[in-house]
């Protein structure tokens, strides 16, 4: 029985996966078994399936996620467009990658399908993967562009310390809220003085204060103020390096008693990555019909797989001329794009895995 990626996609979009990926996991496992592949589940809830060729060759990995953001948006189809939660993020890419995985029988090397359960939340599944791949295709809505880089995303809080006093005698205390002005001014100069600079593919990083909290009573000088910041990083900046650099900058540029700490996470932050365009994986996807080579606009679990050659690719778009698509109530994907994505991935895999005399991954 031939696999029908469009029928699978419709079933997937009809399957809620915003609160738990369990039903989606069952659907994928059942589908793989129906087509002669016995998947395994690891302790982190990842689905893993593998095919191996007889000759030595590269290990290529197809990866995307099973979960979606809330709330669930019901399935509907209008001619060649499917609407619903996960239609493009990432059940469209999932259908294309499963189709390519089932269609390709490697003559050499290995092909792994690795599907994670919690990309939209903790990324614990991806963090637990240890696949040692020579190349990764990560399914996300890229509009069929071959995306070779993405900014990282860090977050943390600057805590400003002061001293309580009565508001009638403000000089008796140290106003932590008032000190926030100096801290915000220092953030504006961080990039030029200590940032990693502009990346050739990803452009400039951003540092944005997004939440500020301080004070308990109108008639009391506040002894603490907290400013949460969002960092979109570019290589070679790491989360630890950013934390160290921002603390040094605040010390140097303010007279404020404060410190910055990254938000506690059970898994590593999604750091920036950039795959050189002149790699076999990129060339294979472009040669098979992939569109423009460039960056992906959002942070993804792809960062966990770098520095191995990693490409983000798939049908659908994050935004269109009307506004948000992924994560929005109008989330959609075009059915022909799912089929085209599968053709491109399949062609790339065939060029890398089916010919013993072909490229090396």
Features:
single chain; Aminopeptidase; Alpha-Beta Plaits; 2 domains; 6-stranded mixed beta sheet; 4-stranded antiparallel beta sheet; 8 helices; 28% helix; 27% strand
Give the SSE layout:
Elements: H1 5-14, H2 22-34, E1 40-41, E2 47-52, E3 55-65, E4 76-78, E5 81-83, H3 91-103, E6 108-116, H4 124-128, E7 135-139, E8 146-150, E9 152-161, E10 165-166, H5 176-194, E11 206-214, E12 220-221, E13 224-233, H6 239-253, E14 258-262, E15 273-274, H7 280-287, E16 293-296, E17 310-313, E18 319-320, E19 323-324, E20 332-334, H8 335-353
Parallel strand pairs: 3-6, 3-7, 7-17, 8-16
Antiparallel strand pairs: 1-2, 2-6, 4-5, 5-20, 8-15, 9-13, 9-14, 10-12, 11-13, 18-19
Question: How would you describe the overall organization of this protein?
Answer:
With 361 residues, the protein is of the alpha+beta class. The protein has 2 domains: 5-150 and 272-353, Aminopeptidase, CATH 3.40.630; 152-262, Alpha-Beta Plaits. Helix content is 28%, strand content 27%. The chain has 8 helices and 20 strands. It has a 6-stranded mixed β-sheet with strand order 1-2-6-3-7-17. It has a 4-stranded antiparallel β-sheet with strand order 11-13-9-14, covered by helices on one side. A 3-stranded antiparallel β-sheet has the order 4-5-20. A hairpin with a 2-residue loop joins strand 4 (76-78) and strand 5 (81-83). Helix 3 runs parallel beside helix 8 (335-353), helix 5 crosses helix 6 (239-253) and helix 7 packs across helix 8. The longest helix has 19 residues, at 176-194. 44% of the residues are buried. The mean pLDDT is 96.
């Amino acid at each position: 029985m031939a696999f029908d990626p469009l029928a699978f996609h419709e079933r997937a979009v009809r399957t809620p996966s915003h609160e738990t990926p369990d039903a989606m996991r069952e659907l994928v496992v059942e589908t793989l078994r129906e087509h002669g592949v016995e998947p395994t589940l690891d302790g982190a809830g990842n689905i893993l399936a593998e095919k191996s060729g007889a000759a030595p060759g590269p290990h290529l990995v197809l990866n995307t996620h099973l979960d979606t953001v809330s709330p669930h948006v019901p399935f509907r189809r209008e001619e060649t467009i499917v609407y619903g939660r996960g239609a493009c993020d990432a059940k469209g890419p999932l259908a294309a990658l499963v189709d390519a995985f089932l269609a390709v029988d490697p003559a050499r090397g290995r092909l792994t399908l690795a599907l994670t359960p919690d990309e939209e939340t903790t990324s614990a599944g991806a963090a637990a993967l240890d696949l040692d791949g020579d190349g990764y295709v990560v399914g996300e809505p890229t509009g069929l562009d071959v995306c070779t880089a993405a900014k990282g995303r860090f977050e943390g809080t600057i805590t400003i310390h002061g001293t309580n006093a009565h508001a009638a005698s403000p000089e008796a205390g140290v106003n932590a809220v008032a000190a926030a002005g100096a801290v915000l001014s220092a953030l504006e100069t961080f990039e030029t003085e200590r940032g990693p600079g502009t990346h050739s593919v990803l452009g400039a990083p951003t540092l944005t204060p997004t939440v500020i909290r301080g004070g308990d009573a109108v008639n009391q000088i506040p002894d603490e103020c907290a400013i949460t910041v969002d960092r979109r990083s570019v290589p070679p900046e790491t989360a630890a390096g950013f934390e160290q650099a921002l603390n040094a900058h605040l010390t140097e540029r303010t007279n404020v008693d404060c410190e910055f700490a990254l938000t506690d996470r059970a898994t590593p932050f999604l750091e920036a990555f950039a795959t050189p365009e002149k790699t076999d994986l990129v060339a294979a996807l472009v040669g098979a019909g992939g569109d423009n080579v460039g960056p992906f606009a959002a942070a993804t679990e792809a960062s966990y797989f770098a520095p191995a050659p990693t490409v983000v690719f798939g049908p659908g778009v994050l935004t269109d001329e009307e506004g948000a698509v992924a994560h929005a109530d109008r989330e959609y994907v075009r059915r022909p794009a799912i089929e085209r994505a599968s053709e491109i991935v399949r062609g790339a895999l065939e060029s890398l895995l089916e010919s013993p005399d072909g490229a090396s991954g």
